[in-house]
Amino acid sequence: MAPTLEISIPTTQTSNTTKPYTLYNISLRLPLRTYVLPKRYSDFLTLHSTLTSQTGLAPPVSPPVKSWFTRTVNNAQLTEQRRAALEAYLGAINTAEDWRWR
């Protein structure tokens, strides 16, 4: 049996580039080690697109919708809403009954 994987997004950060963007720090916790992977919102959309095309199924939970008129960089409330929704999205994939999502 595979070890239990705990997925969470406990924190976010803003990049220090000329065009700032939000990074979501994904924490992957295994029994003996924890990994933290910073990912952009677009990385989640790429994951979603890839999984949907490979499984041919609707996802257990959809990722949050992209907002074209507001940015998470200057909006702490939007950043927190998106962080929570992305965490729920990853959690739903990780615990899905259908093994193809995992």
UniProtKB/TrEMBL annotation:
Domain of life: Eukaryota
One Pfam family matching this protein: PX
Sequence ranges assigned to domain PX in this UniProt record: 2-102
Positions of transmembrane segments: none
InterPro entries: PX_dom, PX_dom_sf
Entries under PANTHER family matching the protein: SORTING NEXIN, SORTING NEXIN-13
Name of the protein this chain belongs to: PX domain-containing protein
Organism annotation: Cryomyces antarcticus
Lineage of source species: Eukaryota, Fungi, Dikarya, Ascomycota, Pezizomycotina
